[in-house]
Amino acid sequence: MGAKRMRVIAAASLFFASAVLLSVARPSRTLASGSQTVGQNPTPNPAPVQPNRSQETPSARSQDQNAAPNPYQPAKAVSAADVRYPFQTPADGVVVFDVALDARGAVKKVTVLQDVPPFTAAAEQSLRDWKFAAASQDRMPEDSEMPVAFVFRHAVYIAGEPPFTPISPAKESAETLRGFVAPGILSISYAGYPASTISMGAVVVQANVKPDGSVGGVSVVRDLPGGFGPLAIKAAKHWKFQAALRDGRPVPSKVAIAFVFSSRSLNPF
Hints:
There is one protein chain. The chain is α+β, with helices and mostly antiparallel strands. It is built from four helices and 15 strands. It has a single domain (76-266), classed as TolA/TonB C-terminal domain (2-Layer Sandwich), CATH 3.30.2420. The strands form five sheets. The chain has a six-stranded mixed beta sheet, sandwiched between helices. Mean pLDDT is 79; it is low at 27-44 and 53-65.
């Protein structure tokens, strides 16, 4: 092989090697060039992330619930005074008052709905020392009314329960469609007398009257030692009521009931 031919082969080999190196280096430069382009022309700031509305919903609902109107709260008896059973009578019966209250809970007027002498005077005297809390709507106190019943019956009795005339709220009229109409008392039940005591006095309970007129629960406002409280609660749960109305719609209410017990030692029979 001549020297000239050797030079041609060497030159061809060099040319081929240069071409291969050039083809390998070109993509690297392209990539490098691309990275420089990204660096020189940065992508604009991404759009702000929109808040997830599903995550905001609980908070919004909580605010809505907190802002929801407070349900109607009826007037109630806070404290009650004792009642003495008149000694000089063998009679018994139920005296019922309608107590009108202002927005501070103060008594504006007391109306006798069922009069049973001589018990009415004793009941009214006790009622002067009772304390009440006003009704409210959306936490705003307002004028209202509530019935207060005084149940008088001797510890020892031989006759059946005296009859009771139902006391119903006013019939539907222009007045009942606005303002408050107190609940009615449709039927009553007398409390028994504990067997192991000769005590006397009054147990005052408060019945929660639901919008359908049923009794939702009974709480004690004034107790009398000797086992009187449970008997009074048991009797009050059997009372029947007609629901109170506010602007023509049934609302919850409360009725205070004083069960007045005479002593076994003072049996008038």
